[in-house]
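We give the chain.
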Amino acid sequence: MKTALSVLLCGCVLLMDVPASSEDEPAVDCANAMTQMDMNICAGQDYQAADDEMNAQWRKTRALLAEWDKSVESRGETASEQLLAAQRAWLSYRDRQCAVEGAAVEGGSMQPLIVASCLAKLTRLRTEDLSDLAGLYGN
């Protein structure tokens, strides 16, 4: 329970330090971000871009595996079902791993930067994994 609370609190810190929506964010030159708030905003935007890319690849890979499943005789859990279970486990791992990294600076103004940077890095790696997996199934 303590771990879940820590993850929830970490998310709350992210929400408190970054504006509620992109409409509320001030214009930030992320190539020259100088303040902690600007760096936090840029890290959040970077993570959002990485997450959007991963979700697009996820849809492609899952559709490919679902088509594969139709072409083979099932001997239990299908490839697309296994992928879904793996993705859910990976999301849990990513979020907890980044919460651990953020805990090193818990309560500090740079915690959102550390967490969002971790989320972006791991999400990009997962996007590559999903793309590689699609290649195994013929795409």
The domain at 1-10+49-67+79-139 is CATH 1.20.1270.180 (Substrate Binding Domain Of Dnak; Chain:A; Domain 2). Residues 29 and 38 are 8 Å apart (CA to CA). Residues 12-16 have pLDDT under 50 and may be disordered. The two ends are 41 Å apart (CA to CA).
